[in-house]
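Subject: ATPase structure
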Amino acid sequence: MSVVPTAADPQRVTLARAAIAEGRTALGIELGSTRIKASLVDLDGAPLASGSHDWENKFVDRMWTYSLDDVWTGLQECFASLRADTERRYGVSPTTFGALGVSAMMHGYLALDGDGELLVPFRTWRNTTTERAAAELSELFGHNIPLRWSIAHLYQAVLDDEPHLDALRSLTTLAGYVHGRLTGRHVLGVGDASGMFPIDSATRGYDRSMLTQFNELVAERRPDLHLADLLPEVLVAGQQAGQLTPEGAALLDPSGTLRAGVPLCPPEGDAGTGMVATNAVTPRTGNVSVGTSIFAMVVLERPLARVHHELDLVTTPAGDLVAMVHCNNGASELGAWAEIFGQFAVALGHGGEPDAVFGALLREALAGEADGGGLLAYNYLSGEPITGLPEGRPLVVRTPDSRFTLANFMRTQVYGAFATLSLGMRVLEAEGVELDTLFAHGGMFRTAGVAQPLLAAAVRAPVAVATSASEGGPWGMALLAAYLGAAADLDLGTYLRTRVFAGSDVTVVEPDAADLAGFATYLDRYVAGLEIERAAVAATAHGA
């Protein structure tokens, strides 16, 4: 993969300028948990420019949510940021693209009326108020339905007899909602759809028998609710999913510069774009994405032998079966500590860029004892279904004989970010699932050589990081958009292998024996200490 052209590459800058001016590019936009990001690439997937906008979810009436006003303000500012980057780099502003795609956080609940208006505030994947619904559906289907899945939110609303159901006409995800406003089409990529309702891997569509079971389940309470009429149409990677309408162009770019008519690929979830961005879409490959949440996606050679509450069964953007280990809590707590240490540095008169502070602290983790020196860290800002916690409280715990050093503290924070993931990966290991390599991506891996070996110890498998690791989900979405022009000739895996990642620079780290033993000791302490976390939730429930 080529890097973004710079002024030192005049020929490449000239070629990039022409591609942008003529619309021979693909744009990917991803609405992540803390940032909306855009990636502009040429039609071979090489990055050209980027844009971003910071945002944050809110905890309103005990629900994690984002307002739709913030969605559109954020998208417009992200697009403006991208346009400014292209002007700065190439002296040209894009007015059209060869293809466009939108991705976002998976799961959650966006319930719309017949006019496409939101009926209740957007309920994100972080909400864990669907315990009864998820348990009943999992038993009914013989298929694990996690608390964050859209169908669990819908059924919980039925159980609670929520009045908005009378006006419910469609259900979608955040990516599906944005795509619908840009194109007028109620569709979803199969990977994102697989986090709404179970997918039949043979048909690449919703499981028909489970659709019938659901309708029968709710028939007495909601006789007019027919699930197939509510869910988006499912499309696979390479299928065109509509065109940018004039109204959609104005929503994305109020300046009026962006022209309508751009073809869009199916909207996808952040899990799918992470798989594409790491070239992990074929069996025996997998990827780990580290952000506000952390999840591993492992492409399966065969179905699992039985149902596990720790594992979701979802799909790649092409519809192939994937086991997903999803942890609600990722690197946010680690980032919060980095911010505190940064403030301390400023108070001492030694200011530093946030990335520099974060990198310095991560590097300190390598000097820590292999087991973290007896410390414990829980990164639970929200509930964590894998460990059975409906709510979370970030904690650092030490005993009188713990070795409380900065190095041990930071190693424990990194271990705490990976611990719940490790528990889920051990379930896959017990199922006999084998991995050749696990690819990692996300901001944590911008600091070379630190998180990678510690993650290898946590998952007990080789971990690879490519030079493109920090490009992340928006780049993966841009690749899916660019794939529209190649899908007639190449399957997705071949396209990525031969057109995008051929010759890419990848560093692979094998698990270190001392780190393996140290993390295993830490994880035993972590599991035993979950009682402390439960007690903290109970003791501070009123304050929450």
